[in-house]
Design goal:
homodimer, about 240 residues, Arc Repressor Mutant, subunit A, Rossmann fold, six-stranded parallel β-sheet, 11 helices, disordered N terminus, DNA-binding
Chain lengths: ~240, ~240
DNA sequence: TTTTGTGAAGACATTCACAGCG
DNA sequence: CGCTGTGAATGTCTTCACAAAA
């Protein structure tokens, strides 16, 4: 896992020879290698993955930034700049090797190994997530399921994950080395569950409850809120009525 | 529906009396009333709704921008500026009336009436969405369900929506005045379904398929991609390993 | 030639800081 | 007094335009 970012910013500033920088300590140099990567760029990396998959399916081996831009409706310069934050992946005069770029994006996104996740909440949404086959192809797997009422949900078929009581959350997460929690419980319960997940040692949380939850800064939280997406849609639809 | 935006930019520039502007046609005036609202602001409006609901539940009647900011971890000036795009909702020296602001946000977001939606795809995800009670409290309702194979899915109980064949998409959407489509079908089928929805006359689409779909510019598309959210999480988790 | 990678310019978004109002 | 509403300042992101490379 630790080598996931070896390719990052691997460029040496051309104005400085290695020898020179060996002898003289230069204040700006460490800053240069830690150029800040915009959040907006990171969000687009998944889209690039998506369209590269599509291109692979169509048998395309080399794609220019213009071609990629067309597929995700972005500016070509945007794509070149985004990729350039992480290295020099293209060939001037030709474009990007689709397969190669795809591999590099996987490394950058940290999905070279499979992330184990714990699902909390086996209601409607939880069950759908559990059945969601696409997770695995993206490098994620639900490895344990918890619910306040372990009896509920679909009857447990053989080969299905057992629904565990909340009491066993911490030991199970430790034992199975789970690093991500998915919160699919009602809003009222969400903050409590987040606290338990943090206590159990997860480092990332995907929260489906439409409420603001907090966690220490070393735990990353991503909120997925359907209501908010629909409201955004509604805003734009109402606005069109005005014209 | 058309009155949903009457409160927008209802401020009269103080430098011009009403009489004055009645008599003389001023070029800049129409521009002033159409000040462009940042997308980032619009995305935050749903969050404001969420924290106002929370405040209401706690019995809070008046809240300052500082108080609201603390609840959604934003800068107070951000909140004041966002709200100021749509009118003067606050009282100087006091703050914002929670109830009143909530009502105004509903009008701004266009959720004063209930939006009817058609769900396409009655698989795992579709079924979960169908059972998702929260939609209604946000002003949205699934009014018709379609699937390539109408027989599948949960056995149809009385009082449950029938699963209709795709053939009936267009007439049903017309007949029931449905304006939003939810795409919960596999990636390969997504673009085709989007085309059918557009043809049937919907104006907004919520797409759960992890693929880039296109529609004419008069149809608004919002993508919800779980894989992409997880990849974003993965990126941040991998990065923390580096330090 | 073609297309990348990248400074510089431009567009957009956030925060500051304070006048103005209750 | 306290807090909003808002220009001005700052910060961030996107796009342009071109030198450098294959």
């Amino acid at each position: 896992m630790a080598d996931a970012f070896e390719t990052f910013n691997r460029k040496t500033p051309r104005c400085l020879s290695t020898k020179f920088s060996d002898r003289i300590q230069i204040r700006e140099l460490p800053e240069l290698s830690k150029k800040k990567i915009p959040e907006a760029t990171i969000r687009r990396l998944s889209t690039y993955q998506q369209i590269l998959n599509q291109a692979t399916d169509e048998g395309i081996q080399i794609a220019s930034s213009a071609e990629l831009a067309k597929r995700c409706r972005l500016n070509p310069a945007q794509i070149r700049k985004d990729l350039a934050y992480f290295g020099e992946f293209g060939v001037r005069g030709k474009g990007y090797d689709v397969k190669n770029l795809q591999e590099n994006l996987k490394i950058i996104l940290g999905i070279t190994t499979i992330w184990k996740m714990a699902l909390i909440g086996a209601g409607n949404l939880g069950s759908a997530l559990l059945a969601h086959k696409e997770f695995l192809s993206h490098g994620f797997i639900i490895d344990a399921v918890f619910d306040k009422y372990p009896g509920r949900g679909r009857p447990q078929k053989p080969g299905t994950l057992p629904i565990r009581p909340m009491k066993t959350l911490k030991p199970t997460i430790h034992q199975r080395s789970i690093e991500i929690g998915i919160v699919a419980v009602p809003s009222e319960a969400a903050q409590g569950v987040v606290a338990q997940l943090v206590e159990a040692g997860v480092r990332g949380i995907l929260n489906f409850a439409p409420t603001q939850v907090t966690a220490p800064s070393n735990v990353t939280i991503k909120n997925v809120d359907l209501g908010s997406e629909l409201e955004h849609l509604s805003y734009h639809l109402s606005k069109l009525d005005e014209e």
